[in-house]
Structures are given as C-alpha cells and as structure tokens.
Amino acid sequence: MEYTVQKLGQMAGVSTRTLRYYDEIGILKPARINSSGYRIYGQTEVNQLQQILFYKELGVSLENIKEIVTAPSFDVENALREHRAKLLTKKAQLDALIANVDKTIALSEGRITMSDKEKFKGFKQKLIDDNEAKYGQEIRDKYGYEVVNKSNQKVKGMSERDYEEATKLANELTETLQIAFRTGDPAGASAQKAADLHRQWLCYYWDSYSKEAHAGLGQMYVDDPRFTAYYDEKQPGTAVFLRDAILVYTGTQN
Amino acid sequence: MEYTVQKLGQMAGVSTRTLRYYDEIGILKPARINSSGYRIYGQTEVNQLQQILFYKELGVSLENIKEIVTAPSFDVENALREHRAKLLTKKAQLDALIANVDKTIALSEGRITMSDKEKFKGFKQKLIDDNEAKYGQEIRDKYGYEVVNKSNQKVKGMSERDYEEATKLANELTETLQIAFRTGDPAGASAQKAADLHRQWLCYYWDSYSKEAHAGLGQMYVDDPRFTAYYDEKQPGTAVFLRDAILVYTGTQN
DNA sequence: ATACACCTTTACGTAACGTCAATGTAAAGA
DNA sequence: TCTTTACATTGACGTTACGTAAAGGTGTAT
Questions:
Q1: Nucleotide nearest to A38 (CA to C1')
Q2: Which of A148, A194, B48, B146 pairs as cysteine with A176 (C-beta 3.0–4.6 A)?
Q3: Domain B160-252 falls under CATH 1.10.490.50
Q4: Yes or no, beta carbons of A98 and B84 under 8 Å apart
C-alpha cells in the first residue's frame, strides 16, 4: 500500500504539515519522491510513523525519537517493552494526581486538612518520574539494570529475575501466612505482614494496584473453590483468614 | 505562610521563571510586592497555583486556564470534579495505548497480524475520547444519566444469586476454553468468547475492570505455577492459550 | 478549458517557558 | 564594616513542534 501525505496523515491522525516537518528534520523520510515531487510513503514508513507517535505520546522529544528510530542497532521489541513500562509509569502518575484531586475535593468539603506541601504531591511525583524517564537510560548504562530496577520495583514484562523474586515473595507469603494463622488474628502484625507481602506479590502481576481490586481478589480466594483449594491445602480456613487480613489491610491503608 | 518566588517554586516543583511568567500573563499575581520589589505569595496564591497546575496537567492552555481561574463564578469544587472525570478519561486513553503496545509486541513476535488502520487505533481512540470529553456532558444533560451509565454499571455486593451466576460462568468458561484450545487459534471466535466469559466472570470479583488488569491476570496464569496448574490440569498449554486469547481480546476490545 | 482538490516550498507566527545578561538586595561570616 | 553568597529584579533572545498563509505546480473530472 502506498500513501501520499494526506492519506497517511488522515490514517494516522496527523497533519500534512507534520509529515513534511518530520521529513525536514529527517525523522520520517518518504519511501520515494514521484516525478511531480510528491512524497510517497510505503509500509516501512507506516510502521515507523507508528513508532514515532508512540514515543511522542510519551512526551519524548522528536530529537530523542530520531535517535531511537534511526539508530542502526534499534531493537524494536525491546523499545516497545521500555515504552510500555513508561506508559505504566505515566499511569501511576495519573493515579497519584487522581488521588490528589480526591483529597482536594475532600479538603474543600472540609473533611480533611492538607498542608501546602501535600497540595503539590502529585506534581512533584511527576517531576521525579520525568527525571527517571530522562535519565533512567543513562543511569542504567552506568550502574546496570539491577540497581535502577531495584528502586522502582514496578518492572514489568516479567524477566527471569522478576519471576524469581515473585516466587520468593510467594514463599515468604506462605510462611508468614501460616504463622499468622496460628495467632488467629487477621488484624495482628504478622497477618498484616502477610497481606502486605500478598500486595507486593500481586504488584508483579498487576499493572495498577488498587485496594478494591486487592480486596476483590481476597474475596475471590474464598468464593472460588479452585483458589480456596490452593490456600487451604495445608490448613483449612487459611483462604478466609487471608481474605480477612486483606480486608483489614486495605481498609486501614491510606 | 508567605513565600518568595523560589520557595513557592520549590514547593510546587516549578521554576521561578514560570512564576514570573504567570505573573506577567496575569494568571497568578503575587499577594503583594515588598519594598524591594520582591514577589510575595500567600495562601490564596498557593491554592490558585495548585489549580493552575491541575489544569496544565490536563493540557489546558494557560490562556484557557486564565479564563477558568479568574472567572468570577468559578466553582472550585465542581471544577475539581470535572477535572477528576477528565483525568479518568486520560487514564482510559492510556489503557488504549497500552493495549496497542501489547498488540504490537505480539505482532513483532509474529503471533498476530494487524492492519494499518488498527495500528493507529490508540491514537484515533484518543480523538474519539476527546470528543466524548467535550460533548459527553452535553449528551448526559440531554438524555439523562441512566442511558449513558447503563453501559458501565457494575455488579456489587456479591449476593448468593451472584455467586451462583459466577460459578455458572466459570463452568461455561472451562467448557468454551477446552473447545477453543482444540482450534489452536487464540484470536478465533471461540477463544474470544472464552476471553469474554473470563472477563464476565472476573467482574463478579473485581470492582473495576480494566483491560490492563485483565491482561495482567492472564499473564499471572502463565507465570505462577499454582494458577497454571489449575488451567493446565486437563490440557497442558491451556493457561498460555487463555493468556493469548485475553491479550487479543483486551487489544481488540474498544 | 475550467474547476477543484491535491501537492510543493518558503516563511513567518505561536506557546510556554529556558537561558543568559546586567543589576540590585538580604543574610551571614571574617 | 566589608565581602561573599544566595537570592531577587527586568529585559531579551532562543527553542520546540508545529499552524498558517502565500505563491505556485499537478491530476483528473466535467
């Protein structure tokens, strides 16, 4: 399939000016120029434009995008995984902002009070994250993946290492849960630690964590026989206990 | 509490230049100017800056923000609620993009194919959503909340009846999944039906459904042996198959 | 032949600041 | 008291990612 500026622009939702500009700065050259000087784009360019728009959506500058897409050793799949991780970060930022808005609404209703510093919490988080987005790669090159990833724990795409850590967490959860079960108190320290471990473990599988979804999953463990079977294997009643611990955990968590 | 440019800037995470610019364009005037010509900001200004940054985050131009925050009839609480709604819309857009990325990754792995049009779905969706953001309120005013909200009603409270229905769904899922597995095509009709049943079933346990969380759970079935064991019990490979079906499902779903 | 929708390049305009430059001021230590 | 350092001020020009003419060539349908 071949496209002129307008056809490609309409399909992609960008202006013809944008396409000419991308040509000008060397970020997306047409496949060929026809006898009348028209820009003609082909399949390769469609794919490349998609890449460009992905990164643009992330707030990456065209200059950086240029480096990314014109690098000879460009690993598309890896780039996409990184891209995905960044989108998830952005989403987390949004969640922070939404939480802040909720809090502000509560504030204006007179339900709570909020310090000046707190009022900008969401935005500051964004700055930190923006910083991560800008310098993350640099830092990774410098100190290796381990160091960086250890701090943002939100690594997705489940590497082998992640899998190991998730498994370790799962085992820790099982142990802690057994100990906690013997105390009989879902609100007790060890039960709450189990609930927290469960949350941590969950975060390896869920892109976004919410208390409601967490509590919902806890309920599912009780309601659905296949999950109950797993948790009750060694000690009947453990599924119910975990659910209650999670309920307390998600209720008291701020 | 009183703040100079730098103090306010640091707290809010903006530059002093920005604050001077906001003064210049009349969007945030200091409470007073001291004898040396320094800008001194007070409580009112802190709150107003927060408002401004909220809107900025949304992509509203400073010109429009000016109109909003300087309007005499400006209803803060209502603005916050609208703001919140828009943030949620933005989050949904992000979900669409993430789904698109997932699909592209799958594409580059050669698992599925994607038409040129599909490649821009996330971006187009954004346009549609922008439209919704603009006219959604209008439609609601026109036709009332019932009609609009009918589509996003959620089942809550898990009654006995609900539990029965969830169990019925789970059985139906197991059956459909077996049939689908034999076709070998995760994008096929029966596999997609299975994915949809899975979603329905999930909705009995989760308060909020998101494609991303759904996909995440699918991945969890593959990565975590306890879940894999359940799904692979009768037929090894079923967990992977379900995950792929869900990936396609959450990717193509609009 | 004319209309009309497309294409081209050139070039200036814009938003929201960043980044000097040149200069004045407050606070703290020698 | 003097000096250093950190902060403040107002210009003024630079930047990014295009929008928006202007002035003109191209393709095809009537």
A1: C7
A2: A194
A3: yes
A4: yes
CA distances for B113 relative to A22, B106, B110, B187, B248, angstroms: 27, 9, 7, 10, 11
Closest CA to B4 of B40, B28, B34, B31: B40
Which candidate from B50, B98, B126 shows the least CB-CB separation from A120? B50
All structural domains of chain B with their residue ranges: 5-70, 76-150, 160-252
With tokens 């949304």, the residue in question is B58
ipTM: 0.45
> Which amino acid is residue A3, in one-letter code?
Y
Query: Separation of CA B206 and C1' D4 in angstroms?
Result: 63
Strand D close to B16 by CB, under 7 A? yes
B15: which 2 tokens?
Answer: 């530059």
Minimal CA separation from A206 to chain B, in Å: 5
Say what the pTM is. Answer: 0.47
The tokens for A118 are: 């707190």
Over the stretch B118-149, which tens digit does the pLDDT of each residue have? 655 554 444 334 333 333 333 233 222 222 22
Sign of CA dihedral A65, A16, B121, B94: positive
How far is it, in rounded angstroms, from Cα A172 to Cα A170?
5
Q: Measure A34 CA to C17 C1' (Å).
A: 41
Q: Which fold has domain B5-70?
A: Multidrug-efflux Transporter Regulator; Chain: A; Domain 2 (1.10.1660)
Nearest to A176, CA basis, from A154, A151, A201: A201
Please give the single-letter amino acid code of residue B220.
M
| 3-class secondary structure, A206 | coil
Which of the listed CATH numbers 3.20.20.300, 1.10.490.50, 3.40.50.720, 1.10.760.10 matches domain A163-252?
A: 1.10.490.50
